[in-house]
Amino acid sequence: MTQTAQTIFAIIAEKALLAPSDLTPETRLADLALDSLAMVELIFALEEAFDISVPFNANDPAAQEFDLSSVGAIIAAVEGLLSQKAA
Amino acid sequence: MQRVVITGAGTINALGQDVTQTFAALAEGRCGIGPLDIPDVDRLSIRIGAQVRGWTPSEHFDLRGLSLYDRMTQFALWSARQAVDQSGLVFDGDLALRAGVVLGTAGGGLGTIDDSFRAVYAEGKNRVHPLTVPRLMASAGASHISMTYGLRGPAFTVTSACASSNHAMGLAFQMVRSGAAPVMLTGGAEAMLTFGGLKAWEGLRVMAADSCRPFSADRSGMVQGEGAAVFVFEALDHARARGAEILAEVIGFAMTSDAHDIVMPSADGARRAMQGALADAGIAAGQVGYINAHGTGTKANDSNECAAIRAVFGSDLPLVSSTKAAHGHIIGGTGAVELLACLMALQRGLVAPTVGHQRDDPECGVDVVPNVAREAQVEVALSNAFAFGGLNAVLALRRM
């Protein structure tokens, strides 16, 4: 697992009150019972950890440029933003 | 029990700097939202707002006032001046001893806070303006109105986030109705379009980046505004005895709390607040012709509010509009500015539209008077305010 993935596992686990080992890349965010406040805190934590800006509007979580559907999707989306930043 | 009437109104907001201009803009379906012009706007991700333009405080206040008044207080004082002038009241003798003021604001003197924090944190200064504390006090607007007019009865500010003004006006209504005060100035003010204020809102991810489209299926969130409105609430007997022009009667008020969630609303709390206002006014739901909705343009509020409206009114739905799409969400001052739309409906038989409407949302299912004002004989109007933290306050007004 990359350092990026490990950090993301830790961030999501903390918000979901779980251990990182409880999560897999296939874990669906919808199954973690995160409320709307936990979601915006999660996004803030990702932005702070990686110095990125995540496009997200809570009014329409289903139609986001940033895929928040699963742990693996979040890792891929963060890596995408990081590669854009590096480019 | 006294009957309570409105004998004066004043405002400043993105649509105009008085009631006449605001009514004209509401009637035309004009939108006051545009690009923000504030320091560091390039560091914001949300760069639109309903900002008051062309406001020159030095045209309205003396030097002492200019050093003492935060923008929020300036808005409150300017609105109060219009309202008092229209009412024709002179506060002296026993009236001055018993009359008072209750305002609503959520943020208080946020511009002052922003300026002082910028000075010490960003600019590395070791002192701030010496009058920073009296400027930033949330109650400064109420204090300066009381001092300006010599109001020596009850004077204070209430804060309940986006319901602050409705709570303030509801308390003023109760005080006049009970006989505790013959006249109360009331309303609310907010000036939160600061870098720090907007940064805080950005974090919640509920702001629209393009436009405010309440009840529209494609709505994408709220847009902030700024401004104030102040009204003269007066006992009917007192107003009649001096031959005052009466703008409308305030007939009911109710407040409830959801006791549920700090940001997500509950339809039950909103329903109980509307039903409570009708019961307080002693009227049936069918008498209501217009509701000025809380209508923030967020997914969560609008569908919830419509469910509550349908629960109260069944199939006999009144017209519903959200004027936040025009003057923005004025947070703690919003209920006061929105009461103007109720006054326009009652006085002129003209219902302000919900501008920015693109297409109906089947989840809403009410007539939101899309984009174009509508003539309607409105006898009773409600004004809804449903704040973060589940604090609900609804006023009922009747045509006189």
Count of separate structural domains of chain B = 2
Sheet having the most strands of chain B: 10 strands, mixed
Q: CATH superfamily assignment of chain A?
A: ACP-like
Q: What order do the helices and strands of chain A follow?
A: HHH
CATH class of the largest domain in chain B reads: Alpha Beta
Quick one: how many beta strands of chain B?
A: 14
Radius of gyration based on Cα positions of chain B = 20 Å
> What share of the residues of chain B lie within helices?
25-40%
Largest protein-protein interface: A-B, 11 and 17 residues
Biggest sheet features of chain A: none
Q: What is the CATH architecture annotation of the largest domain in chain B?
A: 3-Layer(aba) Sandwich
CATH architecture of chain A: Orthogonal Bundle
Taken together, the total number of domains of chain A comes to 1
- Alpha-carbon distance between the termini of chain B? 18 Å
Kindly report how far apart the N and C termini of chain A lie. 23 Å
* CATH topology grouping of the largest domain in chain B: Peroxisomal Thiolase, Chain A, domain 1
General shape of chain B? globular
Helix share bin of chain A? 40-55%
User: Which superfamily, in CATH terms, is the homologous superfamily of the largest domain in chain B?
Assistant: Thiolase/Chalcone synthase
Quaternary class = heterodimer
Shape of chain A: globular
Key attributes of the depicted protein:
heterodimer; A: about 90 residues; mainly alpha; Non-ribosomal Peptide Synthetase Peptidyl Carrier Protein, Chain A; globular; B: about 400 residues; alpha/beta; Peroxisomal Thiolase, Chain A, domain 1; 2 domains; ten-stranded mixed beta sheet; two-stranded antiparallel sheet; 14 helices; 14 strands
